[in-house]
Specification:
It is built from 9 helices and 15 strands. The protein is α+β, with helices and mostly antiparallel strands. Among the domains are: 88 residues, HSP40/DNAj peptide-binding domain (Sandwich); 115 residues, Sandwich (HSP40/DNAj peptide-binding domain). Strands 10-11-15-14 form a 4-stranded mixed β-sheet. Strands 1-9-8 form a 3-stranded mixed β-sheet. The two termini are 36 Å apart. About 9% of the residues have low confidence.
Length: 391
């Protein structure tokens, strides 16, 4: 099933400002909040869908890639943190976007002001690991066909001794007595409008709802240690230099069993010895002799997938561009098809000549056929460029 357009989900235009995006997401989240739609799976799906859309569009880098390439430009898992894919729970979403609703995240319920301050879905604080950035160098051939790369990444990983809990033996913790395991505390204050209940993160447990009574000696209670991981990265065909892909959950592990950060993969394109790149098109210079240009010839031309044979017509002028359709690179979004191979014909002029060669060329130079000039069959550069784009 194809994914819906993120702008359509939030009901905003493609030039919406960050404030407009925030207001639109707030509106959708309140509308489809599970507490307002008990037992309605469709509402919960739309709630997650709105969170995913806002997560991408509120990030300037992700939004730029989405605007340019659509969903395909957001990486192997769509560029998001797995909201609709089950990788993030409802409470994780509340924590991640708590600032949108004035709750500040970190375990506060961002919807408390809309649902009575106490009966809403209120989650414990969820730790989140930091993102990691890596550069991956790719050849033109790898870009043309897509490639799977395995890289070794130094990162924080879950402590094996305590299984990431931070507690000795994995169970040396108790329920926080201050918040009774909820991760938050409530306070009722009197105002001129009457009594008002406010909720904040529990200062005793930091919103986690539990206290470690005996810390793991290997991770000092953090639940993470320095380590390394070999990660397999599937890079789609058509990426370009400077493009950034992301893999959710492959960044640094989070403290005490929280949500791991993302792995951000920046593409670095290795310069090709034969081809230059112009978008999805490849550019290639092919040199021929004067006699080949005058008499016509054929030649084998390299492409990204092998060699092809082309015909060079008699009287070909230096600078003529031949187009081989579909011999370029695949577009990353898959909608534009493959680019073309543009072959620029260049007549090679020798720098040194023998005595006999000079005599021959001097004789040919006196012929009317060898004198340059605007002929009825010759087109200027503007006409040639127009013909090229009309092919």
């Amino acid at each position: 099933m194809s994914k819906r357009d993120f702008y359509e989900i939030l009901e905003v235009s493609k030039d919406a400002t960050p404030d407009e995006l925030k207001k639109a997401y707030r509106k959708q989240a309140i509308k489809f909040h599970p507490d307002k739609n008990p037992g309605k799976k469709d509402a919960e799906d739309k709630f997650k869908e709105a969170a995913e859309a806002y997560e991408v569009l509120s990030d300037s880098n992700k939004r730029q890639r989405y605007d340019q390439f659509g969903h395909a430009g957001l990486g192997n898992n769509g560029g998001h943190s797995g909201f609709s894919g089950g990788g993030m729970s409802m409470d994780d979403i509340f924590s991640h976007f708590g600032d949108i609703f004035g709750g500040g995240g970190g375990g506060n319920d961002p919807f408390s002001s809309f649902f009575g301050g106490g009966g809403g879905r209120r989650g414990k604080a969820v730790n989140r690991g930091s993102n990691l950035r890596v550069k991956v160098k790719l050849t033109m051939e790898e870009i043309a066909h897509g490639v799977e790369k395995k890289i070794k990444v130094n990162k924080y990983i879950a402590c094996n001794t305590c299984k990431g809990t931070g507690a000795k033996g994995g169970s040396a913790y108790s329920t926080c007595s201050t918040c009774r395991g909820s991760g938050h505390v409530s306070r009722v204050t009197s105002t001129f409008l009457g009594q008002m209940q406010t909720t904040s993160t529990c200062p005793n447990c930091g919103g986690e709802g539990q206290i470690i009574t005996d810390k793991c000696i290997d991770c000092s209670g953090n639940g993470v240690v320095k380590g390394e991981e070999v990660i397999s990265i599937r890079i789609p065909a058509g990426v370009s230099d400077g493009m950034q892909l992301s893999m959710g959950g492959k960044g640094n592990a989070a403290a005490r069993g929280g949500i791991a950060g993302d792995l951000l993969i920046q593409i670095e394109e290795i310069e090709h010895e034969l081809f230059a790149r112009d978008g999805n098109n490849l550019l290639y210079d092919h040199y021929i002799t004067f006699s080949e240009a005058a008499l016509g010839s054929s030649a084998e031309i390299p492409t990204i997938d092998g060699k092809v044979k082309i015909k060079i017509d008699p009287g070909t002028q230096s600078g003529k561009v031949l187009r081989l359709r579909g011999k370029g690179l695949t577009s990353i979004n898959g909608y534009e098809g493959k680019g073309d191979l543009m072959i620029s014909i260049i007549i090679w002029t020798p720098k040194t000549l023998s005595k006999e060669e000079k005599i021959i060329l001097e004789k040919l130079g006196k012929s009317e056929n060898f004198k340059p000039g605007p002929g009825t069959h010759d087109k200027n550069i503007f006409s040639r460029m127009k013909d090229l784009f009309e092919q």
